[in-house]
Amino acid sequence: MIHSVRGPVLGIGLDHAVVEVGGVGLAVYATPATLGGLRRGEEARLPTTLVVREDSLTLYGFADAEERELFLLLQTVSGIGTRLALATIAVLEPDTLRRALADGDLAVLTRIPGVGRKSAERLVVELRDKVTAPVAVPAGAVAAAPAPVLGVREQVVEALLGLGFTQRPAEQAVDAVLAHAPDTDARDLLRTALSSLGRSR
Which residues form the Holliday junction DNA helicase RuvA C-terminal domain (predicted)? Predict the structure, then answer.
């Protein structure tokens, strides 16, 4: 397994960054919050995990080791794959997720896109004893990096399609956010649209 990568950031997309390691540019997929902490041209070090499929090798990066462990833990639950695991940590902060699992808070868990009541109950049953509820919710959040002004709507819709949503619901969720907050940047727009899609299921 590729445990971590370190090197200059060559580029940042909506759902991934390209990090140069030993002269090779690696595409590292990550949440909006993690990507928001990176800067093009600056060195980054990200804990990672490599997901091997028959037709692909996909590298996922995380803000810290805790986030990576939750990503891996979520996939031990039947029906939870990499897309849903990444969407989960994109919508819920690690402490919020651990508390919801430990307390059996289905209302919080069903905010995750693609997770209904039955899936939330399964998450609680299978993971409750594997997590420790945090003592307190941490203050503050990772600041989002500025996103290109043009094509923000199209970028976010494309990212939602990549997470498994269909065209029409993705566009409706993005348009609803933009109608209330037209100046929302791409990463906040993606996070809010994901939360909206999670509540609508």
Answer: 152-197
